[in-house]
Write a structure and sequence with these properties.
The protein has 241 residues and is of the alpha/beta class. It has a single domain, classed as Metal-dependent hydrolases (TIM Barrel, Alpha-Beta Barrel). 36% of the residues lie in helices and 15% in strands. Helix 4 (111-122) links the parallel strand 5 and strand 6 (129-130). The longest helix has 16 residues, at 225-240. It binds zinc ion (ZN) (2 copies). One zinc ion binds at residues 8, 10, 74, 193.
Length: 241
Amino acid sequence: MPIIADMHTHTIVSGHAYSTLQENLRAAKERGLLFMATTEHGPAMPQAPHRYYFGNMSVLPREVDGVRLLTGVEANIMNVDGELDLADRYLRKLEYVAVGLHRDCIPPGSQEENTAAILAAIRNPYVDAVVHPGNPAYPIDFLKVLLAAAEAGVLIEINNSSLVRSRAGSTDRCREIARLAAQHGVQVVLGSDAHWSGHVGVLDEAYNMAIDAGIPPENILNLDATRLENFIEQRRRRKQG
Ligand SMILES: [Zn+2]
Ligand SMILES: [Zn+2]
């Protein structure tokens, strides 16, 4: 099944990535994608863009050379209360808000604390997805997080980089998440987490893991344009409603 979207990409704007937005879009086009979410790290990450970057994303074209550009962020969960590093007035204007735990923003806690932080973020109505939940640096209760996400209509990411080059020790944990997602009918999203344009749209490992775990294609956001558009529209209404 062809992949039509990459929902997790970074550019030089994040400070530790190496391609521009135009280079990423060109790579997306070359890989045959119809959608690309650009999701820079939130302002609490060192060298990440200022909040004004996120506030100004409406200047970007909706579509570039046939690729629909989704305005997004990979916001940082800052504490066990699930506070994010970008205020609601910025989040509500973005089309795709992913959240995750990162070292410079929240120190790894106990499994209970990490889980509480993610559960609280999932309750934020502006949040659309939880990224790299299999990171071994932040142990969490997978089932609790998956069930809460499903209830809130929040996606659980299978992060391709976690399976290839980042967050060593993620693979078995991601496989367990995929198994639980299949078992409980949880919606997942695939993200390359590209920090280099050559990795945009490279989602093979994540896709294979999802399919091997038995997640039905209709529960993988990246495979159908209409379903993806409906998801974005439904979340937009919820954010701006
Ligand atoms: Zn991340
Ligand atoms: Zn990322």
